[in-house]
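[job 0412] stage=complex_fold ligand=zinc ion status=START
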Amino acid sequence: MKMILNERKHAEEALAYGKMDKKPTRTLVCIAKLGLEQGQSIDEVHNVLHQFMSKYYLNYNAVHWDSFFHRVIHQAACYFKTREKAGKSRLIEIDDISITYTELLRIKELRSKRLEKLAFVLLVYSKINNRIHESNVYWVNNVWSEIYSDTGMAVSKRDQGLLVHKLIQSGLLKESKRVDSTNVQVLFAQEEDDVAIKLICFDDFILEYLRWTGERIKNCTICGKRLIAKSNRQKYCKECRNIQRS
Ligand SMILES: [Zn+2]
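[job 0412] stage=complex_fold status=DONE, emitting structure tokens
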């Protein structure tokens, strides 16, 4: 998943030991938000960003990044104002998302692995959006390429639309009434039930659904990454296995 679900943790880890998102600008946004949240002035935040980049970013050019820092800080400040006006918390801090048995059974009823995977991912996204917007409406307005990337399936543009349409027909989703919108609403969330899956790590999280359906999913004994085990002996993910061999 590309989204940063815990902005505070992300910023703290970045500042502590240089951990950075694939897109460093996302990390800078989190650091700026954390700084403002802690009451730092704009100049102070600017300096923190500058220090961070000088320490951890290869070929960092202060002149080149200066105007970008200003923009990031300005945007973060505006964002905080809107959130405050709406009475919402300023930083996004999601540690886990829970999926219940009723929800999983509803997905399994689809009896099509492709539809099941898509429904599971959409459910997770809708719950994340609820937490971000502090709402209870289960809308998904995320980019479809990102959603499909989390399903782990290669699906053509045309089939992407078809799969969504099938979920709408099955009554699991509702489409937006706005003509220009591709947003969908998840209709099968059922929080009032026992938790079956508690997602804490969101890399390859679709594998947790497959694990629940009985597929042999293991966690790499070195890095903890989820993997589809091809044999009982398999212990490591591809990356860690390569490191072991070299
Ligand atoms: Zn590993």
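The mean pLDDT is 95.
[job 0412] exit 0
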